[in-house]
Every structure is written in structure tokens, then in C-alpha cells.
């Protein structure tokens, strides 16, 4: 009887220890990163053909990875007339009769888009890609035309093209969403993902670094500023962003 009592006592101690560990883990998951109501509206959606991994980082880990960042390309937004003349000589059928026709893949099918209402400004060339800035009614972003494959791809903002086109990444603080586009070259085409974050969160800083497997991971800082009342009078209330009050997050995105 005494042995049975000791056995039951030991089992109770182990069960208490297990429940304590589970409770601590649950609390840590809740507290990171949502330790208060400031971050409760953070959400995102992912569209891609492979799984990605998102991790929340503390300042120490973020700074450690940031120290390994690679240099990114300068961003151009103005048209380059000489580059445009070169492109038209090489590909005279793309621009005809005030319209532009670009082939691209959608749902693994090769399609062609013909547009006469969108302006295409050739702003840069990186590796094999001519980079066009698009402008039109409810249309913006960048089109990347590969001079070897003659296939186009799209990004929401100016693309970072790394390792001769093996990686293509863009970061955009848009009106409808904060977006990260990521392309990684495979044997035939590209694996890709599109991460869309609720627009109240904006990208403050972004970097890329090489992980232990030789692939690029993305690290970003996001912030959502609270509003504070600065003036109240006959014309109503006036608010501005409170730089000292809001939600700040640091993310690592692996693909």
C-alpha cells in the first residue's frame, strides 16, 4: 500500500510538471509577439507554390541576421530613353500601334496581355531582365521582361534581382496591402510566393541574407502607429500618428 501511494505521488508530480511546461509554452506563444492589444490587428495571407516559414524575432536575433545582409540594388523610377531604344530594336513587336503586348505565365499557362491604356516606362535592366514601371487606371507596379525567355513577370514595387536573376524580390507599402513578392529560380521556371499583410502595418526596413543552406531569407521590420488627438476645435478633431505608441514587429521569412 505504501509503494502504491509513493507511485501515485510521483505520477502526480510528473503530471504537474508537464502541465506547468504546457502552460508556460502557451503563455510564451501568446506573448510573442502579441503581448498587448497594439498588435491585435496584424494578419497576413500567403499565395505561393511552395511552403514558407515565418518567424517573429526579438531585437537581438534581428540584429544578428541584419549583420549578414547583402547589398541591394539602387531603385530607379525615371525612364531611360537609351535603354528603351535598345529594347525596341531587339523586340520590335512588343510595342505596336500605341499598344504593348507581353507574354506571361498565369496558372501554369502561357498567356499574352495586350494593353493600350497602360503606360510602360523602361527604367532599368538587371541581368537578363528589362524593368518596366507600369502606370494606368487602377494599375501600378513593375513588369520584368526576360530577354532570353521573352516571358514577363510582375512585382508590386521595384524588384531586387540577385545572383543573375536567380532571386527576384520586391517590397511595397501599398494602399490595399503591404506586399512582399519573392521569386526563386528552379530548373524550368520560378518558385514564388506573395505575402500580403494588412495595410495598417508598413515595412520600415527590409534586408536579405544567406542562410546556412545558401538560400536567401528575408527579414523585415513592420510598424503600425497609433493615432493621437492633437487638436480639437470648431472644425472638428485633428489626429496625427503617435511615433511612440504602436505595434512594432520583426519577421524572418524563409522559403
Account of the protein in words:
The structure is a single chain. This protein is α+β, with helices and mostly antiparallel strands and about 260 residues long. The chain has helices at about 1-30, 60-65, 80-90; strands spanning about 45-50, 55, 95, 100-105, 110-115, 120-125, 130-135, 140-145, 150-155, 160, 165-175, 180-185, 190-195, 200-210, 215-235, 235-255. The protein has a five-stranded antiparallel β-sheet with strand order 1-13-12-11-10, with no helix packed on it. A four-stranded antiparallel β-sheet has the order 2-16-15-14, covered by helices on one side. It has a four-stranded antiparallel β-sheet with strand order 6-7-8-9. Strand 15 and strand 16 form a beta hairpin. The radius of gyration is 25 Å and the shape is globular.
Topology:
Layout: H1 2-31, E1 44-48, E2 53-56, H2 59-66, H3 81-90, E3 95-96, E4 99-106, E5 109-115, E6 119-126, E7 129-136, E8 139-146, E9 152-155, E10 160-162, E11 167-173, E12 178-185, E13 190-197, E14 202-210, E15 216-233, E16 236-254
Antiparallel strand pairs: 1-13, 2-16, 3-4, 4-5, 6-7, 7-8, 8-9, 10-11, 11-12, 12-13, 14-15, 15-16
Defining key terms:
255 residues, alpha+beta, 5-stranded antiparallel sheet
Can you write the helix and strand succession as a string? HEEHHEEEEEEEEEEEEEE
The chain-level mean pLDDT equals: 83
Approximate shape: globular
Helical fraction: 10-25%
- Which range does the strand content fall in? over 45%
Terminal CA distance reads 58 Å
**Secondary-structure class:** alpha+beta
Number of strands: 16
Major sheet size, sense and barrel closure: 5 strands, antiparallel
Give, in spatial order, the strands making up the sheet with the most strands: 1-13-12-11-10
- Number of H- or I-type helical stretches: 3
Instruction: Indicate the radius of gyration in whole angstroms.
Output: 25 Å
The low-confidence runs, each spanning 5 or more residues with pLDDT under 50, are 12-32
Amino acid at each position: 500500500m505504501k509503494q502504491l501511494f509513493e507511485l501515485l505521488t510521483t505520477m502526480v508530480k510528473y503530471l504537474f510538471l508537464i502541465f506547468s511546461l504546457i502552460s508556460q509554452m502557451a503563455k510564451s506563444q501568446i506573448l510573442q509577439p502579441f503581448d498587448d492589444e497594439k498588435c491585435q490587428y496584424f494578419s497576413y495571407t500567403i499565395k505561393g507554390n511552395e511552403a514558407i516559414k515565418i518567424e517573429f524575432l526579438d531585437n537581438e536575433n534581428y540584429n544578428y541576421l541584419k549583420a549578414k545582409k547583402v547589398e541591394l540594388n539602387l531603385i530607379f523610377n525615371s525612364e531611360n530613353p537609351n535603354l528603351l531604344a535598345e529594347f525596341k530594336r531587339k523586340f520590335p513587336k512588343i510595342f505596336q500601334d500605341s499598344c504593348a503586348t507581353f507574354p506571361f505565365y498565369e496558372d501554369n499557362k502561357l498567356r499574352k496581355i495586350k494593353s493600350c491604356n497602360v503606360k510602360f516606362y523602361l527604367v532599368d535592366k538587371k541581368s537578363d531582365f528589362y524593368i518596366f514601371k507600369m502606370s494606368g487606371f487602377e494599375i501600378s507596379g513593375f513588369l520584368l521582361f526576360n530577354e532570353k525567355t521573352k516571358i514577363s513577370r510582375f512585382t508590386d514595387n521595384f524588384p531586387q534581382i540577385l545572383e543573375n536573376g536567380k532571386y527576384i524580390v520586391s517590397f511595397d507599402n501599398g494602399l490595399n496591402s503591404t506586399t512582399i513578392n519573392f521569386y526563386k529560380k528552379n530548373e524550368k521556371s520560378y518558385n514564388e510566393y506573395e505575402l500580403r499583410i494588412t495595410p495598417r502595418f508598413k515595412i520600415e526596413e527590409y534586408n536579405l541574407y544567406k542562410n546556412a543552406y545558401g538560400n536567401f531569407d528575408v527579414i523585415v521590420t513592420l510598424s503600425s502607429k497609433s493615432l493621437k488627438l492633437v487638436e480639437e476645435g470648431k472644425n472638428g478633431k485633428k489626429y496625427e500618428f503617435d511615433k511612440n505608441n504602436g505595434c512594432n514587429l520583426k519577421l524572418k521569412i524563409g522559403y
